[in-house]
Task: inverse folding
């Protein structure tokens, strides 16, 4: 998308005006400062996805659009979880974070903050694995996507 | 030499060849108005309400094909214009609307007459721009006109903060503009065009369903030639009336909720549907599951998002309608393609049988004036050559049914948004574009009162618009639905305390006539037409309870019409 004020609200406005659902949305400027890259996750029948694709392409701030699910691709989300980490629990949480290839990035005598990256279901699984009541706070980034192999989204 | 933003604005519009600006001044645009005062190339038309400025610009654009231009102030000026912008958006009308904005440093401060014009108009424009630097102004105006007039046309808003109009910059107006994210398709896909032509050859019960895109894309001539060569029946949508000559024998009338029996039955029974510059609106399709149950559908449209939006299409063709139709004609002529004459003969016999229902018949010896009779007489006396604008409701449907449009851009109405109050200001815009033509606004006592203040604008600019007020004392279409579907509970559809329209017209310096007997209709209309240089307000007191027929009730299929 053009990296312009209002571009994001055009996309968000389109989804709400036409009754489509945004599951997640990640956007940031690219190496070309005049462009932003947005990864948007939505769900629908083939007809609805076709219509969403066409409507997005119609937005003048949208420069190029690619449906990642047309081919093999990688999805990643980043999650930060703040957990109660006292006594016995400290080791257990460290081990669990290791199993999920998470990293503890902030430590106090009361709690840990764990950073975890991966596909959405891996992040879900990690949260499931945590004892109830241990979670203080969770923040998730929304999905970033890139296609595998030679296929790429560039101008 | 450096110019102020206001001067750049004026020079840019001159470079675009703008003739008329429809607008209303206010604090945020005073620099611009001062710059307009000092020039004489463009004419500014002062309306009485910003909604009317947008409708007038819209009527101008629809009738002559050039983009309409609007200038309003910040805050209420812009919000008043929104209805007209949304109207133009729904009907894909090219329009550039300049809104004033509070100075840059006050944006977001809840300043006096501040509104988020970009945010408010975003869902009803093709695109909008906020100008944040005077050096971007000329380029932004160029982009606005380019976006508004190319591809599927539509309104574009340019929001200009007051300080930008005072700041100075070097002026140069770009000859052309390149936008990496905006490249509308022009030419249709050759393979798809061949497939469509093949279907024309094999179709046994074809129909051409053509809409506003044919008019906007100036493709009437190509459409007519194609229909003639193939001997296919043609139906126009409400927006497409005039795209194909209504007096031609191959025209089966308008389709849809209040379309003709023959048009809707032909749609329902067709085996190949050629949709051209039409968008399968719910008022056309009726119940979507029952729509054209046996048809292979070809859809030509400039907007890919219109294709397979409501109805799944078999042969999609994205491109300018005129280019695509010409490519089809080329293919047909080049390969000596013929339609199936034997099958078509049978098909026409069937259509003629449907026609013989005479679905638009009405009681001709009524004591009360029948609205249909007024329109038939208007058609006869103007020889079908007037520009007709309309408001929204029963009168709009009767005008669409009874005034036979043989030429494009003669029928000016709010089809998509259905905006009451559109007719009179739109007629003003049409009259500016065609000063010598007969321009009649067909309206009702409900709609006309939504923008009646514009009678004053008509006085100021001596606009000889003819107002055909079909006055039944009811919000007729609402009343009709209440009669059919709400057991005659006429909630709020009766308009009490109407003004004396004759005196009202006279108070603005116009001519008013009140007609109460059917026998006086023709004479009064003749008198009206003789008053070439005057606005004449014709208050026809019509049958109070006349209904529009045929009618497909909501949820019905095209073959499920209520006939008179």
Result:
């Amino acid at each position: 998308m053009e990296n312009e004020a209002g571009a994001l609200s055009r996309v968000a406005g389109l989804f709400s005006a036409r009754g489509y659902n945004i599951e997640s949305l990640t956007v940031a400027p690219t190496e070309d400062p005049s462009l932003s890259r947005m990864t948007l996750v939505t769900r629908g029948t083939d007809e609805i996805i076709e219509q969403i694709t066409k409507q997005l392409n119609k937005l003048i701030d949208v420069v190029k659009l690619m449906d990642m699910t047309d081919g093999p691709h990688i999805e990643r989300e980043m999650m930060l979880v703040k957990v109660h980490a006292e006594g016995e629990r400290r080791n257990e949480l460290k081990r669990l974070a290791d199993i999920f290839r998470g990293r503890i990035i902030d430590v106090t005598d009361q709690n840990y903050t764990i950073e975890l990256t991966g596909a959405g279901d891996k992040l879900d699984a990690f949260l499931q694995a945590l004892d109830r009541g241990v979670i203080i706070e969770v923040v998730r980034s929304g999905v970033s996507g890139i296609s595998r192999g030679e296929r790429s989204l560039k101008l | 030499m450096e110019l102020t933003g206001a001067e750049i604005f004026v020079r840019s519009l001159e470079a675009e060849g703008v003739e008329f600006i429809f607008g209303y001044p206010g604090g945020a645009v005073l620099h611009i108005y001062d710059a307009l005062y000092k020039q004489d190339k463009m004419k500014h038309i002062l309306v009485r309400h910003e909604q009317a400025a947008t409708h007038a610009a819209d009527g101008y654009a629809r009738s002559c094909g050039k983009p309409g231009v609007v200038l309003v102030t910040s805050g209420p000026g812009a919000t008043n214009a929104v209805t007209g912008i949304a109207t133009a958006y729904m009907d894909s009308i090219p329009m550039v609307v300049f809104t004033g904005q509070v100075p840059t440093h006050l944006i977001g401060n809840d300043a006096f007459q501040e509104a988020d014009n970009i945010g408010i108009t975003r869902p009803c424009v093709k695109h909008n721009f906020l100008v944040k630097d005077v050096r971007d102004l000329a380029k932004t105006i160029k982009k606005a006109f380019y976006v508004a007039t190319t591809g599927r046309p539509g309104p574009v808003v340019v929001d200009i903060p007051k300080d930008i109009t005072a700041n100075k910059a070097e002026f140069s107006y770009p000859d052309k503009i390149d936008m990496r994210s905006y490249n509308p398709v022009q030419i249709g896909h050759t393979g798809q065009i061949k497939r469509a032509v093949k279907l024309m050859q094999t179709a046994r019960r074809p129909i051409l369903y053509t809409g506003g895109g044919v008019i906007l894309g100036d493709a009437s001539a190509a459409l007519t030639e194609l229909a003639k060569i193939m001997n296919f029946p043609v139906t126009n949508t409400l927006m497409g009336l005039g795209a194909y000559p209504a007096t031609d024998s191959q025209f089966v009338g308008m389709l849809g909720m209040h379309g003709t029996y023959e048009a809707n039955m032909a749609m329902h029974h067709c085996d190949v549907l050629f949709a051209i510059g039409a968008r399968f609106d719910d008022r056309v399709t009726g119940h979507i599951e029952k729509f054209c149950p046996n048809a292979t559908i070809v859809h030509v449209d400039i907007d890919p998002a219109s294709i397979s939006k409501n109805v799944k299409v078999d042969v999609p063709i994205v491109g300018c309608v005129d280019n695509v139709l010409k490519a089809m004609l080329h293919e047909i002529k080049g390969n000596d393609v013929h339609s199936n004459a034997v099958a078509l003969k049978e098909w026409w016999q069937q259509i003629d049988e449907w026609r013989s229902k005479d679905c638009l018949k009405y009681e001709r010896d009524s004591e009360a004036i029948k609205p249909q009779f007024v329109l038939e007489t208007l058609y006869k006396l103007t020889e079908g050559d007037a520009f007709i604008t309309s408001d929204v409701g029963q009168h709009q449907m009767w005008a669409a049914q009874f005034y036979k449009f043989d030429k494009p851009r003669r029928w000016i109405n709010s089809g998509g948004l259905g905006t009451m109050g559109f007719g009179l200001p739109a007629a003003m815009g049409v009259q500016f574009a065609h000063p010598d033509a007969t321009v009649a606004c067909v309206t009702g006592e409900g709609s006309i009162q939504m923008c009646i203040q514009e009678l004053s604008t008509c006085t100021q600019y001596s606009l000889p618009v003819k107002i055909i007020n079909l006055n039944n004392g009811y919000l007729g279409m609402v009343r009709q639905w209440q009669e059919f579907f709400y057991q005659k509970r006429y909630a709020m559809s009766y308009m009490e305390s109407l003004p004396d329209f004759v005196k009202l017209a006279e108070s603005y310096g116009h001519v008013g006539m009140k007609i109460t007997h059917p026998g006086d209709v023709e004479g009064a209309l003749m008198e009206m037409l003789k008053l070439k240089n005057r606005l004449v307000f014709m208050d026809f007191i019509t049958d109070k309870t006349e209904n529009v027929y045929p009618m497909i009730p909501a949820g019905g299929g095209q073959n499920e019409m209520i006939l008179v």
